[in-house]
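Predict structure. Chain length: 433.
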Amino acid sequence: MSERREPVGVIGVGWVGLVTAAGFAELGHPVIARDILPDKVAALSRGELQMHEPGLAEMVRRNAERITFTTEMAELLEGARLLFVCVDTPPTYSGDADLSRVRAVIDELPADGDQVLIMKSTVPAGTGESIRRDLPRLSYVSCPEFLKEGTAVADFMNPDRVVIGANPGDEEAAAAVAGLYAPLGAETLQTDVASAEMIKLASNAFLATKISFINEIANVCEEVGADVGEVARGMGLDERIGASFLRAGIGYGGSCFPKDVSALKMLAGNTGYHFQLLTSVIEVNELQKRRVVGKLQAHLGSLIDKRVALLGLAFKPDTDDMREASSLVLAARLQGEGAEVVAYDPVANARAAELLDSVELAESALEALEGADAAVLVTEWGEFAELDWAAAAARMARPLVVDGRNFLDPGKLRAAGFAYEGIGKKQEIGAPS
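Prediction complete.
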């Protein structure tokens, strides 16, 4: 697909790194992907993935001859000049980004090398300048990723934009990175490093703000008898607002939004600026996850010894990622109120078992609903929309559903005998007898 065949190096073969490696291999580049975990490298060399991402396993296997997985930095440096850094930058206890993995990579690079370091990891503005001071002979480019879990393969192959940040002196490196992405035909924004670093944080913070805003609107809609779905639809028709990320629910999660919103808030705070809006965005998101408990109590009274089934555990469908998943908070709060919690997720049960050792994990949705006093739709997996809800009602002790994503068909559920309650809709307390 591409005329350029320059080898590409990828450092860190987690979710972003593996998608990046497979994507460039798909474009025809030889790729050397390095990770420090021998078991992961061995599994990937066999074509075995330790994550769920639609289409990724097939892309890795299809390009097996182009991708070399290794634990050796020396092999990477020998085989590639363009090095994409794709290591994690999780939040610290303070909320700042933990750059220890990035620093570990920097420590392994030769001070007199001619490599181009391309930062895919999400880092605070100013990180690039710090790295250039440590390795002044190294060319440095910021190229933030905008992949979405569940659609990452399509996002890589059809990006809505490519952002390339480089400072004076690194124009040639920036052109080399732009050349890698040129076959994809996306609009490319070339800017300075600090601006590129900020674009990623600002983008995720803005999307998180839209989510928290519509959830606040949903809460007001419940009080005044409005339907947040209709409100969001009307808002979204305004081209200045747009319809995306205006779906009310129980809050955002995952590996990006919580981390990046917190990192931007702390970045601002470290300069002496109080980012009040992001403080509210975070607070609204945390409170939203807990509102489900109140909805259940409105129907059931005390939750002591009540059996509550959580449908979906991953933070979003088409992934098994449990990072910052709403289900974690919800399960803990329900257990704190004395409820017995059972849960089912089509792909995330194994990961959830490591985090929810006191939650019973079922092998199917119907099994989870057996004897339940209520069900909470947490993750909008397609199979839940297709579930035989009449059969589910017959299995439950009480046919009650709280739809935390406004995903299910209220009419269908009510016809099956359920009391149904969504988010941002007029409450209908009381279940069918």
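Summary: The chain has a mean pLDDT of 93.
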